[in-house]
Structure formats: structure tokens, C-alpha cells
TrEMBL record:
It comes from Kibdelosporangium phytohabitans. Keywords: Acyltransferase, Transferase. Residues 270-391 form the Thiolase C-terminal domain. This is Acetyl-CoA acetyltransferase. Belongs to the thiolase-like superfamily. Thiolase family. The active site is at residues 91, 348, 378. Residues 5-261 form the Thiolase N-terminal domain. The lineage of its organism: Bacteria, Bacillati, Actinomycetota, Actinomycetes, Pseudonocardiales.
């Protein structure tokens, strides 16, 4: 069986996803193209050799509509002969793009693939694609007659289920900012991030990272999702989830070059990691964000590894409660989790986050000398992806 390897991975700086954000003046196609072009430039690969561009995007409407991957590929200068496709597994979209790319390489359908992701939430606000309409339909409503809930309520339900108090969530969030700030200060993101020129200015850093964030600062924030309706329906909720211990709204893109090991050798490319094992699971759509727990168990089983074999974890910090519940169930050492900070600080540009996490995971393994890394993400609807990579 053929191996799928990661030759390189890059990401843009991550901006605040609102008017006036550092990247808000950049069209999503151009932002996405910047990451793809930088990946091609760094690896020096002939763009005509790319068999496909597989990209994740969640808000596939407006400026991210019409198979945005195709337009980003063309904007990046790839030949018209190179195809592209946009996938949507919600927050895990670009992690799923990585899976599809690697699986295609392993199967022999591809030799060279770009897996990437984009989300420009200043241009396409979260939930835009639903346009206020019922996206569930009557059959889903019949199966769940009590109704499903927004993600913020799911995060509160998880905090209640795992007895995660406000101080615990805030401590985790403050640590995320401190780790990200330290990673920037120490140059640990230098290989990951490709700066972006906007007019006379250059965006180099993640805009949402706040080095001065402390638990005291976070403790003053009000609950973000408190509502009388949900409070009456779920009286066990403690209302501990705030904007400070959740991921912000962001703009960003990332791209990963995946080939077979034979192709890399033939082209004189030096892979950074082997894509070892993959898993995707479905879980309770009410709690919604707990899929990372069974996904981790499933991918470790497929990899033939134990939790103790994993040297670095990237667990997407959609909400602090998600990662802390995952840690409580798996027993993972938090010292190995999101060591360069997570989405609470760095940001969560939805469709780009899977590729962003992979970019970070590769660097962490190289910086620490680790062999195996595990990445997992919760996704709307009660889904989760998990990936194990092996540093080469």
C-alpha cells in the first residue's frame, strides 16, 4: 500500500472576522490563493503536477460560493487543467480535505494534491448559508421532537455534564493566550505563517492573540449564551461559557501539500510527516461537540497506538469546555495539548481550521522532537474528525 506524506503546510495570519479586521479588506478567494501560492513557492513543485485541490469552506455562499476552491486555485496561478473541489464537514472541513487528499494518494488516484481551507467571516458571517431557513426538515424534527440547540448551548451542556466551572474554563482560555503569545515571541510560528501584504501594510501576526489576558480579566465577562428559554429548558446549565473562553470569529486560510512517498522521492521533495491513520465519527447531535472523544479512541485503535504514544495533540478549542471534557475522558496530559496555543487565542476561521491545526501540529512535533501527533476537531451536527501523523 502506498504512503501519503505531507511535504509542507502553511497558513496565513489569522485576522478578526469583522469590519476593520486585519484581513477584512481581502477577498476570500485572494486570501485562500495566498496560502496556496505560498505553499507552491516554498516547495518549488510544478503547479501542473497537482492532480486536485481539495478545500474546506463552511459558509459556501456569497464570496465563498460557486466552488470557491476552483477560483482560489486559479487565483493562485495554477493551470486551468488543475481541478478543484470544495467540501463541507462544518468546522472539520479542511481536516476532511486532508483526509480525502491522503486517501486518494493511498488509493493511487492522486500523486500530488493540495488540501486547503478558507473562511473569511468578515465577508461571510457565521450561519449565512442558512439564510434564516429551516435546514433540518420535518423528518429530523420528528426524530428529535424536543429540538436541537445552538453550539453555545451545547458548550454549556458539556460544561454541566463534566462539572467544569467558570474558573476552570477561564484558566484554560488564559493559558491558550499565554502559550500563543509565547510561541510568537519565541519564533515558533515563523515557519507556519506566510505574511500578507495589504496595500502599504504587511499583516504578520494573529490578531486575536492577547498576551495580557489573565483569569482575572476573563472572569469579568458575562455569559455569552444565557437566554431565559434555554435556562428554563436546561436548569442544570451553570452559564459559564463566555466570549473569553470560546473561540473568536476570524478570517484565515491554510494549505497542505500531500503526495505519495514515491512521488516525493522522485521530485526531490523532503516530506515532513506521514499521514498515519484517519477516523470520522458521528455522536449525539444535542451535545454536538463531544465527537472528539470517540474519534480519538477510534483513530488510536486504527493506528494501533495508545494515548501514551502520542507526543503532541491539537484539539480544536471551539470552546474550552470541549477540550476539557475530552481531556477528562481520555486522560491526556494537557501539557501536550495545543502547546503553541489554540483557537481560543489564535482564532477559528471555520473552514480553514483543520489545515491550520495540521500546520501547527507539524511544527510542534519538529520543535519538541516528537514522533506521533494526533489532531481532532468537533463539528456541528455531532461529528468529529481525528488524524494521526508520524513525523519523518
Amino acid at each position: 500500500m502506498r504512503d501519503a506524506v505531507i511535504v509542507d503546510a502553511v497558513r496565513t495570519p489569522i485576522g478578526k472576522g469583522k469590519a476593520g479586521g486585519a484581513l477584512a479588506g481581502v477577498h476570500p478567494v485572494d486570501l485562500h490563493a495566498h496560502a496556496i501560492r505560498a505553499l507552491l513557492d516554498r516547495t518549488g513543485i510544478d503547479p501542473a503536477l497537482v492532480d486536485d485541490v481539495i478545500s474546506g469552506a463552511v459558509g459556501q455562499i456569497g464570496e465563498q460560493s460557486g466552488n470557491t476552491a476552483r477560483w482560489a486555485a486559479l487565483a493562485a496561478g495554477l493551470p486551468e487543467s488543475v481541478p478543484a473541489v470544495t467540501v463541507d464537514r462544518q468546522c472539520g472541513s479542511s481536516q476532511q480535505a486532508i483526509h480525502f487528499a491522503a486517501q486518494g494518494v493511498i488509493a493511487g488516484a492522486y500523486d500530488v494534491v493540495i488540501a486547503s481551507g478558507i473562511e473569511a467571516m468578515s465577508h461571510v458571517p457565521i450561519g449565512s448559508q442558512r439564510d434564516g431557513r429551516d435546514f433540518l426538515g420535518p423528518s429530523v424534527a420528528a426524530r428529535y421532537p424536543e429540538g436541537l440547540v445552538p453550539q453555545g448551548i451545547s458548550a454549556e451542556l458539556i460544561a454541566a455534564e463534566w462539572d467544569l466551572g467558570r474558573s476552570r474554563l477561564d484558566e484554560f482560555a488564559a493559558t491558550s493566550h499565554q502559550r500563543a503569545a509565547a510561541a510568537w515571541r519565541d519564533g515558533r510560528f515563523d515557519r507556519d505563517v506566510v505574511p500578507l501584504k495589504i496595500g502599504a501594510d504587511e499583516v504578520r501576526f494573529d490578531e486575536s492573540v492577547r498576551p495580557s489576558t489573565t483569569v482575572d480579566v476573563l472572569s469579568g465577562l458575562k455569559p455569552a449564551f444565557h437566554d431565559d428559554y434555554w435556562a428554563e429548558r436546561f436548569p442544570r446549565i451553570g452559564w459559564h461559557v463566555t466570549a473569553g473562553n470560546s473561540s473568536p470569529i476570524n478570517d484565515g486560510a491554510a494549505a497542505v501539500l500531500i503526495t505519495s512517498s514515491e512521488t516525493a522521492q522522485r521530485l526531490g521533495l523532503e516530506p515532513r510527516a506521514r499521514l498515519h491513520s484517519f477516523a470520522v465519527v458521528g455522536d449525539d447531535p444535542l451535545l454536538m461537540l463531544t465527537g472528539v472523544i470517540p474519534a480519538t479512541a477510534k483513530v488510536l485503535d486504527r493506528a494501533g497506538l495508545r494515548l501514551a504514544d502520542i507526543d503532541a495533540f491539537e484539539v480544536n478549542e471551539a470552546f474550552a469546555s470541549v477540550v476539557l471534557a475530552w481531556q477528562a475522558e481520555t486522560g491526556a496530559d494537557l501539557a501536550k495539548v495545543n502547546v503553541n496555543g489554540g483557537a481560543t487565542a489564535i482564532g477559528h476561521p471555520l473552514g480553514a481550521s483543520g489545515a491550520r491545526l495540521m500546520t501547527t501540529l507539524l511544527s510542534v512535533l519538529e520543535q519538541t522532537g516528537g514522533r506521533y501527533g494526533l489532531q481532532t476537531m468537533c463539528e456541528a451536527g455531532g461529528l468529529a474528525n481525528a488524524t494521526v501523523v508520524e513525523r519523518l
